From TrEMBL:
<dbReference type="InterPro" id="IPR006366">
    <property type="entry name" value="CobA/CysG_C"/>
</dbReference>
<dbReference type="GO" id="GO:0009236">
    <property type="term" value="P:cobalamin biosynthetic process"/>
</dbReference>
<comment type="pathway">
    <text>Cofactor biosynthesis; adenosylcobalamin biosynthesis; precorrin-2 from uroporphyrinogen III: step 1/1.</text>
</comment>
<dbReference type="InterPro" id="IPR035996">
    <property type="entry name" value="4pyrrol_Methylase_sf"/>
</dbReference>
<dbReference type="InterPro" id="IPR000878">
    <property type="entry name" value="4pyrrol_Mease"/>
</dbReference>
<feature type="domain" description="Tetrapyrrole methylase">
    <location>
        <begin position="14"/>
        <end position="224"/>
    </location>
</feature>
<dbReference type="Pfam" id="PF00590">
    <property type="entry name" value="TP_methylase"/>
</dbReference>
<keyword id="KW-0808">Transferase</keyword>
<keyword id="KW-0489">Methyltransferase</keyword>
<dbReference type="InterPro" id="IPR003043">
    <property type="entry name" value="Uropor_MeTrfase_CS"/>
</dbReference>
<keyword id="KW-0627">Porphyrin biosynthesis</keyword>
<comment type="pathway">
    <text>Porphyrin-containing compound metabolism; siroheme biosynthesis; precorrin-2 from uroporphyrinogen III: step 1/1.</text>
</comment>
<comment type="similarity">
    <text>Belongs to the precorrin methyltransferase family.</text>
</comment>
<dbReference type="InterPro" id="IPR014777">
    <property type="entry name" value="4pyrrole_Mease_sub1"/>
</dbReference>
<dbReference type="InterPro" id="IPR050161">
    <property type="entry name" value="Siro_Cobalamin_biosynth"/>
</dbReference>
<keyword id="KW-0169">Cobalamin biosynthesis</keyword>
<dbReference type="InterPro" id="IPR014776">
    <property type="entry name" value="4pyrrole_Mease_sub2"/>
</dbReference>
Length: 272
């Protein structure tokens, strides 16, 4: 069986597909095959537009992106859209940033599809929770420094508030990876310090990880909110808290590479 046959989309099926965190090189082979053979792609705002190029040129692309506080398609409408398109017999790729089942509402969409008796498949993606720290040179575990990792949201689903009790109960995990926490960084740091975590615990805030413009701000629980405020950091970020963050000093690689690449391109442009 060829690659195309093996990973081709089937009619009347919805594929809940992870697009990875941004770098198109992190897309899975299966995601790429499905994109190349689908009739419609329904995608979120954290999907890198470059990834949409893997779909055929004339394929319908529907942006249901959720932009913090801005225009977005209500979840109910997205569910209905998936159901309608599958009922028409279309091959539907529902493309989501990172992994569809990690803070991606993939579970809710799968439930809606099951209720409507629409067949679906889940194609896991490389989550920003893992890939973004890796591109910042931060291993989440390390034999001497960290043997536990927690991935947590910085904002409660409906109220948008910091889930204080959860942070307090998980404060002693060696490494904490926080998604959707940019706006609440100060409150998160305060919760963790109040729960007994040292104010000197290293923290990294990584914005637009795995993209060429990736930027990382580092500090400690005591200083990070001020550092980020000074630097004007906004979402989307992945926040990493724990001793492993200190390894970045030795292990950072991607931002250096991007800076060299940008300098080379600039030079080539000037030299032309
Ligand atoms: C709704 S969650 C979706 C997470 C996604 N399902 C995943 O597995 O990566 C959105 C949050 O993921 C994080 N995120 C996703 N992609 C990112 C990136 N390239 N750089 C930094 N943060 C990212 C941010 O915390 C953002 O607010």
């Amino acid at each position: 069986m060829s690659f195309d046959e093996k990973f081709a989309a089937r009619p009347g099926v919805v594929y809940l597909v992870g697009a990875g965190p941004g770098d198109p090189g992190l897309l899975t082979l299966k995601a790429r095959g499905l994109l190349a053979s689908c009739d419609v792609v329904i995608y979120d705002n954290l999907v890198n537009p470059e990834i949409l190029r893997f779909a055929q040129r004339d394929v319908e692309r529907i942006d249901v992106g959720k932009i913090g506080g801005g225009r977005h398609t209500p979840q109910e409408e997205i569910n209905m859209l998936l159901i309608e398109r599958a009922r028409r017999g279309e091959r539907v790729v529902r493309l989501k940033g990172g992994d569809p089942f990690l803070f991606g509402r993939g579970g809710e969409e799968a439930e809606a599809l099951r209720r409507a008796s629409i067949p679906f498949e889940v194609v896991p993606g490389v989550s920003s929770a893992l890939a973004v720290p890796a591109y910042a040179g931060i291993p989440l575990t390390h034999r001497e420094l960290a043997s536990s990792v927690v991935v947590i949201t910085g904002a409660k689903a409906r109220s948008g508030e910091v889930p204080g009790p959860i942070f307090r109960s998980l404060a002693q995990a060696d490494t904490l990876v926080v998604l959707m926490g940019t706006a609440h960084l100060r409150a998160i740091a305060d919760e963790l310090i109040a729960a007994g975590r040292s104010p000197d615990t290293p923290v990294a805030v990584i914005r637009w990880g795995t993209y060429r413009g990736q930027r990382t701000i580092t500090g400690t629980l005591r200083t990070i909110a001020d550092e980020c405020e000074r630097a004007g950091v906004r979402a989307p970020t992945v926040i990493v808290i724990g001793e492993v963050v200190a390894l970045r000093e030795k292990l950072q690689w991607f931002e250096k590479q991007s800076a060299h690449q940008a300098a080379r391109e600039e030079f080539a442009f000037v030299a032309e």
